[in-house]
């Protein structure tokens, strides 16, 4: 590292953009979970793409590694520095402008540090939505969402962050700027650099802006909590609702009894039913058709009436035991507050192992039945909250009543569960990424040719290994 490194950065970015005081830096250097901390020579807060490029050039010349960071809500330890190399942490939190909203093309060009919820609020007056939806939306950023290929509760209908992105602008390891913000829906001119950057967790470049797809805001909604006999029934219920509504199901979230009790206890909230139900599902359908918002003969909005009719048929068939339909926006908000409070409720538990797995849908019922029973027999409690429609289970092992976490066979049970996920054709990381947390599993569960290809891409785009070293690629 050159002796003038920090003063060169100050000259290029301005004094305010280079933090070195430990108190100022602290909040950037420990992640949201509190489990991962790192060290950095400085925290950089550039306010333009050109300033990011200048910072990268100076770091490349000095051999200093760079960890990009957005809202620091990642839960895989990807956003804090790791390893022996001298580091800077480069926060995108000042690069947050909405550059252009295009209501005709239904797209928006936005800088990477824009907080997801701020983007959503800014486009609402246009009658448009950017549908990515999850509990951290008040803090996470567009750049972080793309870098982790974030999912959330409506992937079922709109796809994950990758599916919502039309193009990106990024700073590469030599400080050059690659820009593809045209918003074209079709552009087959060689390798898709957008797709390389998405999900790369900051290991290939720094995303500085993106062009994103927007959708018309729904005018009708039906939100319900269901009590079902089991997970196998839930999958039938999902398909029956999809068929009857023409694919309007936007969310289908599994929240079984232990999870619901923990959420209610942690957030001092009441559940939708008097007692937590074994197989609870939060579902939502939305429609942009005015007809679906119009009342039927009984005064019930048509979409809601349709859902009630389908649920009545499902009850007759024994596939639904009970249902509560949100009768107001306030009740809908209360349902969603339960779902979105799940992550905090889980992180509040002492001693846990959290899986973020995905499985082929058909394998989910067998997996849940077997793994819940097996884990409980070993003394664990199981807390599951799942984007069930995507086969994505946030599956957490904790100590059961009267058990001490340290005495439980954690390592063996985690290994058994990961092996089962692999045997069923699933993934050990569905939406949170690899970061540092899941890195040890890559060599075991991902084939060497795939890892070798990842290393070759990394070597080609970042030959000095400066971007987020120690993450994602074993
Ligand atoms: C309460 C809660 C609920 C959550 N629910 C979900 C959920 O339902 N679905 C889901 O997918 N995730 C969820 N997450 C995880 C997290 O919010 C997402 O991964 C989110 O996309 C991270 O965005 P961020 O801006 O906070 O990124 P950060 O945490 O700052 O960074 C995440 C990774 O991206 C890299 N990165 C960040 N910005 C850039 C950039 N501009 N260019 C290049 N690399 C960059 C970082 O280096 C790091 O590797 C949840 C987290 C919390 C705390």
Written overview of the protein:
Helix content is 34%, strand content 21%. The chain folds into five domains: 5-91, Uridine Diphospho-n-acetylenolpyruvylglucosamine Reductase, domain 2 (2-Layer Sandwich), CATH 3.30.43; 98-216, Uridine Diphospho-n-acetylenolpyruvylglucosamine Reductase, domain 3, CATH 3.30.465.10; 220-342, 2-Layer Sandwich (Alpha-Beta Plaits), CATH 3.30.70.2190; 349-433, Alpha-Beta Plaits (2-Layer Sandwich); 434-465. The strands form four sheets. A seven-stranded antiparallel sheet has the order 15-12-14-13-17-18-16, with helices on both faces. The relative contact order is 0.12. Strand 8 and strand 9 (177-179) form a beta hairpin. The protein is α+β, with helices and mostly antiparallel strands and 474 residues long. Helix 1 packs antiparallel against helix 3 (49-62) and helix 8 packs across helix 11 (302-316). The chain is globular and about 75 Å long. Flavin-adenine dinucleotide binds next to strand 3, helix 5, strand 10 and helix 13.
Distance between the termini: 26 Å
Main pleated sheet: 7 strands, antiparallel
Shape: globular
Helix content: 25-40%
Question: How much strand?
Answer: 15-25%
Low-confidence residue ranges: none
Please state how the strands of the largest beta sheet are arranged side by side: 15-12-14-13-17-18-16
Bound molecules: flavin-adenine dinucleotide
The number of domains: 5
Number of helices: 17
* CATH architectural group of the largest domain: 2-Layer Sandwich
Assembly of the depicted chains: single chain
Report Rg: 23 Å
The pLDDT mean sits at 96
Record field, number of beta strands: 18
What structural class is derived from the secondary structure elements?
Answer: alpha+beta
């Amino acid at each position: 590292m050159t002796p003038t490194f920090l003063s060169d950065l100050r000259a290029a970015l301005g004094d305010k953009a280079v933090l070195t005081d430990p108190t100022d830096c602290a909040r950037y250097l420990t992640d949201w979970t509190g489990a991962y901390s790192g060290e950095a020579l400085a925290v950089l807060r550039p306010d333009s793409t050109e300033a990011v490029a200048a910072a990268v050039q100076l770091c490349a010349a000095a051999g200093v590694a760079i960890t990009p960071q957005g809202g620091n809500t990642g839960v895989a330890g990807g956003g804090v520095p790791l390893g022996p190399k001298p580091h800077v942490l480069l926060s995108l939190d000042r690069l947050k402008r909405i550059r252009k909203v295009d209501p005709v093309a239904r797209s928006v060009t936005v800088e990477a540090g824009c907080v997801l919820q701020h983007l959503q609020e800014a486009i609402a007056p246009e009658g448009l939505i950017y549908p990515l939806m999850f509990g951290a939306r008040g803090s996470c950023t567009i750049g972080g969402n793309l870098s982790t290929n974030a999912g959330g509760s409506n992937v079922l209908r709109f796809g994950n962050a990758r599916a919502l992105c039309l193009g990106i602008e990024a700073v590469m390891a030599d400080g050059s700027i690659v820009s593809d913000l045209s918003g074209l829906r079709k552009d087959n001119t060689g390798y898709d650099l957008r797709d390389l950057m998405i999900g790369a967790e900051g290991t290939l470049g720094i995303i500085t802006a993106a062009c994103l797809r927007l959708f018309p805001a729904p005018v009708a909604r039906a939100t319900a909590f269901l009590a079902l006999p089991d997970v196998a029934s839930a999958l039938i219920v999902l398909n029956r609702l999809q068929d009857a509504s023409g694919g309007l199901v936007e969310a289908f979230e599994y929240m079984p009894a232990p999870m619901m009790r923990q959420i209610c206890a942690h957030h001092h909230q009441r559940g939708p039913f008097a007692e937590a139900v074994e197989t609870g599902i939060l579902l939502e359908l939305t429609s942009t058709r005015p007809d679906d918002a119009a009342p039927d003969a009984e005064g019930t909005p048509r979409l809601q009436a349709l859902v009630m009719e389908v649920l009545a048929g499902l009850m007759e068939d024994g596939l639904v035991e009970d249902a509560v339909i949100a009768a107001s926006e306030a009740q809908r908000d209360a349902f969603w507050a339960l779902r979105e409070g799940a992550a905090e409720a889980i992180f509040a538990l002492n001693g846990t192992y959290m899986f973020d797995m995905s499985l082929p849908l058909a394998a989910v019922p067998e997996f849940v039945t077997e793994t819940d029973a097996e884990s409980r027999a070993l003394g664990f409690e199981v807390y599951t909250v799942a984007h069930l429609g995507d086969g994505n289970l946030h599956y957490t092992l904790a100590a059961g009543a009267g058990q001490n976490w340290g005495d439980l066979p954690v390592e063996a049970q985690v290994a058994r569960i990961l092996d089962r996920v692999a045997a069923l054709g699933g993934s050990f990381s569905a939406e949170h990424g690899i970061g540092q947390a899941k890195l040890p599993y890559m060599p075991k569960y991902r084939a060497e040719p795939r890892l070798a290809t990842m290393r070759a891409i990394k070597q080609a785009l970042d030959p000095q290994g400066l971007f987020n070293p120690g993450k994602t690629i074993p």
